[in-house]
Design goal:
The chain is mainly beta. It contains one helix and 44 strands. The protein is globular. The N terminus is likely disordered.
């Protein structure tokens, strides 16, 4: 069966004919969304959603933005949540897996109620309004903080809140589709510091004061230990087998056993440094650590290790100035090939750095103030950053979100897809005489095709292939018209590029997944 687009939507081929305001194959900022002075907000969390096609963040409410587009970027949908005191967001790869946890005065900020919500952009796109499709009340009043996490797809939600009255952390496991409470766990702990979810599994790590827990969504507490010092620096690998825990002057890497997690490696720092952020890739192939000089208060250092061999891959020191340059965000792609760090800033060096695993600097990004949160896409070629407009040590009530692209991908979607419009693709490979656009359903892993270099990431039974001559830069543009049928809303296609070169035909590894939302 061919892809649904191919029999009804004719392809329009051109030789680099689509005019765009920005070269999609150049590195730089793609778009920005800024808080207005009249209605200020500072975004606390941000992340990619729907196979990296959307951006979901806490922005004076919750906002859903397209990851495509250029320039000043308005949210596709926004829910103001006007009385919320604190909002965090989480998202999965499912289109409708957009979650938030918000706290409200009940009746004061010292007695807050906590709600978890799911928003469905498909329902909103079909005219239903961008309002929660379900609401889950955590069922307690507290002055304590809250966190929300989800698995990779967005099918299971873990919501955490600290009950100050009992010094316990409550974890509610929720069904992502219905919001039904699957199970509830209460853990003794003097605070709610760090939380991370094994996105491909069922395990949640919680740092609660001096208590460290790993909780299984079905069987309950799998691991518990008392730490020498409290930390919010915890990360669990995507497969749930590896656990990184930061501390003063060291970070430890643990591996799962049948009875818990045992320490297998210790990564020490110089005296006076503390691990402030970390992330570990699947199989602990890559371990990222952000260190802060808590004695001097201003210096930062990034380290990237091979967690399995305890080999230091690279280290970078960033001198501080008069303000605290605290590393607050670390992200590693699932394959461990790309690493991003975000800091509060020192007034001169960029606040965001993207590295290859060998230490090559891929991108250095300057934002106006301190990074609050960041995320990278599956390939490590795009970064979305939430920031405050001034340094975290300075008073400020506004911030923004920016998306940056390294320009490395050989296929780009150059505008959001719209019903009655078109899906605009561009492909480029230096030296190519012909560009091919392949559209079909994604496969979990690439397959080999005889006579072609590279792997095919699309199902051959759903494949539609289009070709056109490339220009002098190896670029070809494809425009696929979309009909006016509202039933196309929610359709997500997958596209891959191939090129005819002097030595034969080459399939590229990048896949894009444009989503029709309007």
């Amino acid at each position: 069966m061919r892809h649904p687009l191919s029999p009804v939507l004719p392809i329009l081929l051109s030789l680099a004919s689509t005019a765009t305001a920005q070269d999609p194959f150049s590195a730089g900022e793609r778009w920005h969304h800024q808080a207005p002075a009249a209605s200020p907000w500072v975004p606390r969390t941000v992340g990619f959603a729907a196979r990296d096609e959307l951006v979901w963040g806490a922005t004076g409410g919750v906002s859903l933005l397209d990851s495509r587009g250029t320039g000043v970027h308005a949210p596709r949908f926004h829910d103001a949540l006007p009385t919320a005191l604190h909002i965090e967001t989480a998202a999965g790869s499912r289109t409708d897996a957009l979650y938030a946890i918000a706290q409200y005065s009940a009746p004061t900020q010292y007695q807050k109620r906590t709600e978890v919500t799911r928003h469905d952009p498909l329902a909103a796109a079909r005219g239903g309004g961008f309002v929660p499709s379900w609401v889950h009340d955590m069922g307690l009043l507290t002055a304590g903080p809250s966190r929300v996490r989800t698995d990779r797809a967005g099918e299971t939600v873990a919501a955490c809140v600290w009950d100050a009255a009992t010094s316990e952390v409550q974890i509610d496991w929720l069904d992502g589709t219905s919001g039904a409470l699957l199970s509830r766990v209460r853990l003794a702990g003097a605070a709610l510091n760090g939380v991370d979810f094994a996105a491909g599994g069922r395990r949640l790590v919680v740092s609660a004061g001096l208590d460290l827990y790993v909780v299984d969504s079905i069987t309950g507490v799998f691991h518990h230990e008392v730490l020498p010092s409290a930390t919010h620096t915890v990360s669990i690998s995507d497969d749930g087998r590896w656990l990184a825990v930061g501390s003063i002057e060291q970070l430890t890497l643990r591996r799962a056993t049948p009875s818990g997690y045992g320490i297998v490696s210790t990564f020490p720092s110089a005296p006076g440094w503390i691990a402030t952020c970390t992330d570990v890739s699947e199989n602990a192939r890559t371990l990222a650590i952000g260190w802060w000089d808590y004695v001097g208060g201003v210096n930062a250092r990034f380290e990237v290790w091979d967690g399995r061999t305890e080999t230091l891959l690279f280290s970078r020191s960033i001198p501080g100035a008069s303000l605290q340059n605290l590393p607050g965000s670390a992200r590693v792609t699932r394959d461990g090939e790309r690493i991003a760090f975000g800091t509060w800033g020192n007034g001169s060096d960029p606040e965001v750095d993207l590295y290859a695993r060998d230490g090559t600097v891929i991108a250095a990004v300057d934002v106006p103030g301190s990074v609050q949160s960041l995320d990278i896409d599956a390939y490590g070629t795009r970064i979305v950053v939430a920031f405050k407009d001034v340094h975290n040590n300075q008073f400020g009530s506004t911030g923004g979100i920016r998306l940056f692209d390294t320009g490395e991908r050989s296929i780009q979607v150059i505008a959001p897809a719209q019903v009655g419009g078109a899906i605009e693709f561009a492909t480029r490979m230096e030296g190519a005489s012909v560009g091919f656009l392949l559209i079909g359903d994604r496969l979990p892993r690439a397959i080999r095709v005889g006579g072609v270099t590279g792997g095919l990431w699309l199902d051959r039974h759903t494949l539609a292939v289009y070709a056109a001559g490339a220009d002098g830069n190896g670029r070809t543009d494809f425009s696929i018209p979309l009909g006016s049928d509202p039933g196309l809303i929610g359709m997500q296609v997958s596209g891959q590029a191939a090129f005819r070169l002097v030595g034969g035909t080459q399939l590229e590894r990048f896949v894009v997944d444009p989503l029709v939302l309007e």
